[in-house]
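Q: Here's a chain of 133 amino acids. Please give me its 3D structure as tokens.
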Amino acid sequence: MNPIIAKLVLCFSILLSSLGHSADQNPCDDLDGGSRTEGPCMAYKFAIENQKLNLVFKAAQARANEENEFLYADVVTLLEKSQEAWLLRRETHCEFEGLSTGASGGWSQWHIDNCALQMTIERIKYLNDVFYG
């Protein structure tokens, strides 16, 4: 197994084991919470996917660093600039999307978090496809 993938699997396993929360810590497990848990649950899901994104990005950086030896471009720097631009796009796009829904109170934040969650899941898939596909 590629050592980078092995490290990623190990980090991901540690991350998942650290997420073993009880129902009172994970708002998504509160079945009786109704709509009052929707916002915290969405924020929780986003936080988990964001942690996964950070792990996948670090693995992609390591892989890009390996590829720098064979390419005539600084792939690591390009990857980092790409990630910075993507993060800015996610933030601004999702804020626009969430606030333009007309939702009031915490629901606009739910829409922002949902947008960020979906974009983060897509980015994880993209980084995995580019560097390991």
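Q: Can you summarize the key feature?
A: Helices lie at 3-18, 38-68, 75-99, 107-132.
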